Amino acid sequence: MDRLGADFNRLWLAYTASTAGSAVATHAFSLIAVLVLSSSALQVSLLSALGGMLGAFLALPLGPWIEFRRKRPVMIGADVLRCAALLTIPLAYACHALTYAHLLAVCVLVAVGQIAFAGASGAHLKALVPPGRLMEANARFESVMWTSSAAGPPAGGLLIALTGPAVTMLVDAVGYLLSALGIRAIAAPEPPPPTRPPERRRWREIGSGWRIIRGDDVLRPLFVNTVAFGALNVAITPVLAVLMLRDLHFTAFQYGLSVGIPCVAGVLGARLSRRLAHRDPGEILLVTGVARVLWLPWLPFVGTGWTGLAAIVAIHTGTVFFTSAFTPVFATRRLERTPREHLSRVLTAWTITGNAARAACTLLWGLLATLTTPRLALAAGALLLLASCASLPWRAVRSRRVRRDRDPLPPRRERIRP
């Protein structure tokens, strides 16, 4: 971390605190809805879906608003908003005043805070870290995410068993508070934001992020691919849980193993992406983007017992490894490809679309699994994930390769030796 500087260390520690807190509170909203409010399966599904959709709708104006403001105060404000919203849950629980509407309102506020933070953090990182270090920075964030995903849910499960589900919300809130303090401690002055053009109409700026993405031959296919992969991957997760816990009779401990063990591969994949930083990023995106979905068509055919569990772990491990190698390259490519004066709008539009797509697909796949079977729903999701490979930036990479092959090498005497 020293090579990236003390200020990046502070940002990295802030990210670690918020990510670890959220990992401990994994599925906390659903658990509180079931264990405290006795909500039905439909209500639990609606809690996640409506929270994501309403949060995305309310965040629509945020992209242009963030673009023309300093990013660090926005990030701190987003952390404080999420911290304050989450703190109301254990307080209401202690007062026996917690309701489903309250839980839904907190879901929406957390979603809005997450979108605002994502819109500001990418632009802030691009200004803070030298261009040649962006891949390393994103890979380290990815390592933190997968490490937290491996250790957080078991710790959260133990905490819930000892104290109840509402306490994990307190841990999550503290994580956001520590994140805000860490960002506040960054010493480097933030560069001034872009100046808003006086002739721009405010209502047209809401859609500017999507227009910028649509007009770029690299961002456009990556946008389609990453939104589709994220939405479908999230949508099949609860379906797989139903298949494992209800139909295949795995225990909760075995299900936890199937989720936790592959996260180790996520750390290794993130480290691999740092080693591949000198290679063509377009080709890395194609290889890892295809490789991360090749494992999933086997999911509908898994069986029972420890053999079936080993198959599920192997499938998840392959998917997680190549996903964690793909993500830092993708995140760096997106930052490099987007001009600084458009970055917050692009990132906000990307996050809003991803949140809305995940919410819609989760509801749709839950309905599909109910009307058919979990295996058929998993098969449909896996086939669509395979089809999403067609939306990777094949044309842009091919064009770049052709241009590179056509460029003549300089005469031997003019070549510069390292």
Explained architecture:
This protein is mainly α. 76% of the residues lie in helices and 0% in strands. Mean pLDDT is 85; it is low at 409-418.
What is the CATH H-level superfamily of the largest domain?
MFS general substrate transporter like domains
Nearest-angstrom radius of gyration? 22 Å
Tell me the name of the CATH class of the largest domain: Mainly Alpha
**Number of helical runs?**
18
Average pLDDT for all residues: 85
User: How many domains would you count in the coordinates?
Assistant: 2
State the helical fraction. Answer: over 70%
* C-alpha termini separation: 27 Å
Helix/strand structural class? mainly alpha
* Elements, N to C (H/E): HHHHHHHHHHHHHHHHHH
Strand content: under 5%
Largest sheet: none
The CATH topology of the largest domain is given as Growth Hormone, Chain: A
CATH architecture title of the largest domain:
Up-down Bundle
Poorly predicted spans: 409-418
Shape: globular
Number of strands: 0
Summarize the structure.
This protein has helices spanning 6-24, 28-35, 41-58, 62-67, 71-94, 100-128, 134-163, 166-184, 202-205, 208-214, 219-247, 252-260, 262-275, 281-291, 305-337, 343-371, 374-387, 394-406. It is mostly helical and 418 residues long.
Keywords:
Growth Hormone, Chain: A; disordered C terminus
List the helices and strands and how they pair.
Blueprint: H1 6-24, H2 28-35, H3 41-58, H4 62-67, H5 71-94, H6 100-128, H7 134-163, H8 166-184, H9 202-205, H10 208-214, H11 219-247, H12 252-260, H13 262-275, H14 281-291, H15 305-337, H16 343-371, H17 374-387, H18 394-406
Helix pairs in contact: 1-7, 1-8, 2-3, 3-6, 3-16, 5-6, 5-8, 6-16, 7-13, 7-15, 10-16, 11-16, 11-17, 12-15, 13-15, 14-15, 16-17
